[in-house]
C-alpha cells in the first residue's frame, strides 16, 4: 500500500509501503514479567552478542486475560537485556484486538494470525427455507446466524497448541500433549490421553462467572498438569498429593470431573 503525494509539502518519493520484515518472537503462556524474565535469562543472556539491539515480538495467543498484561513492564524488562519489544502477536479475534487497541498496545500479527483473525470476522451463515401458509404457498429464503454447537477436534493436540471454544463445548478424538491447553465455555470431552491443561466452564473475563455445571471427561491416561472448572482449579502437584485420586491420577481410566461447590469432584465411570 502506498499513499499518493497530492500535497506539495511532501518530499519527492515519500510514501508508506508494506514490507516483509520478520522479527524474533517470544511465546508466553501467562503474559507475566516473571515468565518473560525467565525466558530472557535462559535464551537471550547467554547469546547477548546475537540478540543485542534487535527488535522482538511477544506471542500472547495462549494468554487468557490480556487485561492483566503489563505491556510497559514487558518493554522495560526487554530493555534490561538490550532487546526492544515492538508489539504483541497472536491476536486472532476482534474482542482480543480491541482490548489491546483500547490500551494503545501495538499489534504485530504474523501472516498466520492475521489470516486466522480475518476468518473469525466472517459470520457463519446458513440458508433455510420455510413454507408460509397464505392464500397461496410461497417459499421465503432467509439467513440465520448461528453459533457452532460443538467444536470437534479429530487429531492429537500437540505440545504448546491451544484449542479455544468460546460459547461452546469441545470433543477431542485424540491425545492432549503436555504444555497443550484446551479452553471451553462449556464441557471438554477427551477420548484419549490427557497430559496438558484443561479449562472447562471458563469465564470469558473477570466480570463473568463461568458455567458451573460444566464437566471434563477423559477416556485415556489421566495425567493433566492442570484442571479447572468455572475458575476453580487443581494442579498436578495437588492431584498427586490427594489420596482419593490414587486410582485415577497417572492411570489409564475413564474419569468424569465436575464442580462441587468450590472443589473439583472426580469419579470413575
Keyphrases for this structure?
single chain, 269 residues, alpha/beta, Alpha-Beta Plaits, Pectate Lyase C-like, five-stranded mixed β-sheet, globular, disordered N terminus
CATH topology of the largest domain: Pectate Lyase C-like
**What composes the largest sheet?**
6 strands, mixed
Terminal CA distance reads 59 Å
Number of domains: 2
Beta strand count: 18
Shape: globular
Proper CATH architecture of the largest domain? 3 Solenoid
The number of distinct helices, counting runs of at least 4 residues, comes to: 6
Radius of gyration: 24 Å
- What percentage of the residues does DSSP assign to strands (E)? 25-35%
CATH C-level name of the largest domain: Mainly Beta
Q: Which structural class do you get from the secondary structure elements?
A: alpha/beta
Describe the structure.
- The chain has helices spanning 33-44, 48-51, 71-80, 94-102, 111-121, 236-241; strands at 24-27, 54-59, 83-89, 125-133, 137-145, 150-153, 162-165, 169-172, 181-184, 188-190, 197-200, 216-218, 221-222, 226-229, 232-235, 251-252, 255-260, 263-268.
- The chain is built from six helices and 18 strands.
- Residues 1-10 and 142-146 have low confidence and may be disordered.
- Helix 1 runs parallel beside helix 3 (71-80).
- The strands form five sheets. The chain has a six-stranded mixed beta sheet with strand order 6-8-10-12-17-18, with no helix packed on it. A five-stranded mixed beta sheet has the order 7-9-11-14-15.
